[in-house]
Amino acid sequence: MIMKSLRSRRFLALAAALTVASAGLTGCGGSDSDDTGSSRTAPIRALLAAQPATLDPIVGARSAQIVWATMLEPLINTGSDLAPTDTGLVTSWTRTDATTWTFKVRPDISFSNGEKADAAAVANTITLTRDSAASQLKTYFGNVTAIEAPDATTVVVKTKTPQYDIPDLLTTVYLVPPKYYQEKGSEGFAAAPVGTGPYVWSGANAGRDISVKRNPDYWGTKATNEGVTFTWANEAAQRLALIQSKSVDVSFDLPPAQASAAKSAGVEVVSTETAMKIIAFLDSTKAPFDDPKLREAAALAIDRDAIVKGIFDGQAVADAGLLNVKPGQQPTQSVTADAAKAKELLGGATPTVQITYPAAQYTNIEEVSQAVGGSLEKAGFKVSYVPLDYGTLVKRIVGRQVPGLSIFAGVPNVAVPDYFVSGFMKTKSITGNCPDPQIDTLAQQALEQNDAQQAAPLYEQLNTIGVVQKHCYVPLYRQVFNYATGPGVSGVVFGPLNTVDFTKATR
């Protein structure tokens, strides 16, 4: 019943927002015409759900890589199976011994400003990733003790203890030019990024749009189109209206209601099950969830299947695990919702719980948060809601200032379980919500295995401890990402790790 009322309100909001959006299409970066006379190589007009917080890949959340990855490239590319390949800037790697990795860098590559994209640049970027105070990936490289470039095409990375996934981690490390980055600093670099990619910076109108143009000197296959112009609209109904009016060529992140409306209107919609999962994090270090019984009650109260069915009309995938990072995977053990048992565990108590979430950051996140809160209230919890902008939420989580339950996405930019173990489970992790020496020990043991296959049983054990036994994490669902393309638009490729390839797109 809660879900149905939420869906009704969503429909009314959609109708109202469509009216507003249709009346002011050019107000958020759309063109006054559909530009139908443009050639097939004309710039692609891409509409995002939100303005990127920063275009600096060292400190920026990977949600913004859809923009910066047009200009910058990861050190190692991934294939269709999300595993590292030899097609990128780094062409091979060998494990010289248990704690030493040697990487070969593609020769004769330059940044668009003329700096050499050699082994020294690669070593510098890895060092920045490990040492920068605000680095998003800092915790993942804490085991790295030395990064050296003995010659122009060789990088040697040494770790304190064995770590099998170093090549995997480099698939989400984007190469930056050493001299330019040092001169400009993080903010200066973000204002005009320089990379080795198929596009180069073209300009931006503050708060309105960002443009890149084709890199004529790109070392790989050059882009088919002349460039990409990014605009953004927070309201999903506006993103739908803009694609329907042909004011944009591709509209990203359409919730189920808007995706269905687009299909009904004859607009082509592509749906991709992603690796991004929405998770409820319970802080076991503070009341009320320092009580294991209350964590279990909360985990049993939340019905992920009802959320997927009621809010997403089935256009999401209920996900019961934390460390099953690739689409299609599920854990061997999980928690099944049981409202009666949840209420029984509370025993008539009415503990207060705060639910914190990033307002407007993810598809239908407001409704999801309300649904989670409604389930907790039925069990007997008293619930309050704290919506925050994404940047503020991240800062508070890192500062251990989010008690109770927080809801946000886990995006395994690297499709290995340790990406979530190091990010969320270790005592010294981003969230730090479930400190446990046993988890730290198992996490270390897993990394010291020879490869992912040998580590798999340890990750299953870690998932069981965190999700099934300690109830520090309540996985909710894996997002199905919808995007719509305009008439005649083809070649836009969205990947499950939140990546987009625009190079073959035409309109």
From TrEMBL:
A Pfam family the protein falls into: SBP_bac_5
Highest taxon above the source species: Bacteria
Domain Solute-binding protein family: 88-428
Keyword list, A-Z: Signal
CDD domains: PBP2_NikA_DppA_OppA_like
Secretion signal span: 1-23
The protein, known as: ABC transporter substrate-binding protein
